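To illustrate the input format used throughout this study, we show a single complete record. The first block contains the structure-token representation of the backbone; no residue identities are included at this stage. The design step must infer an amino acid for every position from geometry alone.
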């Protein structure tokens, strides 16, 4: 559930920003919002993978191969 929230919250922020911009008056802002949203989403997924590897390292079975 925590992992789902960690991905869902940046996606919700992206959706709010992307859909609240008037695309007819400022198309460059909508492109920037999409780029920011993609960066936030990719960053959150990479961060989740890194944190789960750090915290779940001993539970993942890798510690049985001599790593501590």
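Output of the design step:
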């Amino acid at each position: 559930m925590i992992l789902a929230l960690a991905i869902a919250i940046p996606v919700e922020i992206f959706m709010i920003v992307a859909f609240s911009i008037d695309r007819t008056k400022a198309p460059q802002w909508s492109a920037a919002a999409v780029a920011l949203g993609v960066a936030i989403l990719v960053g959150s997924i990479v961060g989740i993978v890194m944190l789960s590897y750090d915290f779940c390292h001993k539970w993942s079975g890798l510690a049985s191969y001599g790593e501590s």
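Structural context for interpreting the output: The chain is about 70% helix and 0% strand. Residues 2-49 form one domain.
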